[in-house]
Amino acid sequence: MELRRRLVIALLLLLVLATLSTSGYLLLSDNVTFLQALYMTVITLAGVGNGEEIVSTMHNPGLRVFNMAVIVLGWAIAAYVLASITTFLVEGEITNIFWRRKMQKRISELKNHYIVCGLGDTGRHAIEELQKTGTPYVVVDSHDDNVARVREHQSNLFKELLYVIGDATDDLVLEQAGISRAKGLIAALAVDKDNLVITVMVRQKNPGIRIVARCTDLKFSDKMIKAGASATVSPNMIGGMRLASEVLRPHVVGFLDMMVKDQSHTLRIEEIELGKSSTWIGKSLGELNLRQSFNLLPMAIKPGSQSAGATYTVNPPDRYSLEGGSVLIVIGDVSDIRRAREQAHPQGLTAAR
């Protein structure tokens, strides 16, 4: 901002001098047109008018003094403009290079993070949720303007946005984003074929990653699932379901909107996955007392892998005993959910969310 301010000031000074010079030639000379005065100003400031007598100063000492002042001030301002432009270009580029290196270093240190491919309307809303819930993520987009637009409109939310500029269908670009260390990926490009390509490539590079792909045309949904996507999301289908829900259950929709949009709280329905080393294994919900200990309400439980074909148990009783691999669905504030995860895995044995 300081460099831009200096550049603007320099250009304004040059404009003011040009205006004053043209006016001076008009006032101090006889039978001079505006075009002649302007031409005299340009060639004088440019330093190429020494041999031209557009406005004669031979018999006009006052005009000659004025002309010398214009030349001196013109060179001084021109030097300032040139210095400002050079500083703007050089320092700005150097700052940008150091920032990108620092950002790439931070990306290289991430583990179990999420990658969002595409920063359009869908991708922007996705990273808003990741940001609000304190989830580490990296954005991949082919246009620097999209990143700049998001940071300008929501500068407070995306102060430390980590991103990689490049084609998300290029495996080298995804490597820069840490695809081999990532826990999940959101393919949110506008073209379904591109999201399909990303799905195939990412599944090959990281077999354990969870991939969620945007799918405008539902005929691509099965292809994406077969290619390795964990799930697909259709904006059109979600929009239609939302319209119907607004009509049928407006209060439920209002409550869910409050959860997502309330800036003062981050109330969410979240999942707590119990790894094999979790301290909660073998304990009942009554013993954990989630409501009193963490202000969390257990909504459902999906049993561990040893319970083949098991479905969710909704509103589980206090006597329900937890087992390894179980997934506990709870509702509460994100900070309380994070505390519960830390107690369930005190040594950080689960991936950071």
Mean pLDDT: 85
Strand content: 5-15%
How is the largest sheet built, in terms of strand order? 3-2-1-4-5-6
Helix and strand element order: HHHEHEHEHEHEHEHHEHHEEEH
Total discrete domains: 3
* Largest sheet features: 6 strands, parallel
Terminus-to-terminus distance = 35 Å
CATH homolog superfamily of the largest domain:
NAD(P)-binding Rossmann-like Domain
Shape descriptor: elongated
Q: Unreliable stretches, pLDDT < 50, 5 or more residues?
A: 348-353
Radius of gyration: 32 Å
Question: Which tags fit this structure?
Answer:
disordered C terminus, alpha/beta, Helix Hairpins, elongated, Rossmann fold, Alpha-Beta Plaits, 3 domains, 353 residues
Descriptive account of the structure:
- The structure is a single chain.
- The chain is of the alpha/beta class and 353 residues long.
- It folds into three domains: 2-105, Helix Hairpins (Orthogonal Bundle); 110-233, Rossmann fold (3-Layer(aba) Sandwich), CATH 3.40.50.720; 266-344, Alpha-Beta Plaits.
- Helix content is 52%, strand content 13%.
- It is built from 13 helices and ten strands.
- It has helices spanning 2-28, 34-46, 61-108, 121-132, 144-153, 171-176, 192-205, 219-227, 235-248, 250-261, 285-288, 290-294, 334-344; strands spanning 114-117, 137-141, 163-165, 184-187, 210-214, 231-233, 267-273, 297-302, 313-314, 327-333.
- The strands form two sheets. It has a six-stranded parallel beta sheet with strand order 3-2-1-4-5-6, sandwiched between helices. Strands 7-10-8-9 form a four-stranded antiparallel beta sheet.
- Strand 4, helix 7 (192-205) and strand 5 (210-214) form a beta-alpha-beta unit.
- Helix 1 packs antiparallel against helix 3 (61-108), helix 2 (34-46) crosses helix 3 (61-108) and helix 7 (192-205) packs parallel to helix 8.
- The protein starts with a helix and ends in a 9-residue tail after the last helix.
- The model is unreliable at 348-353 (pLDDT under 50).
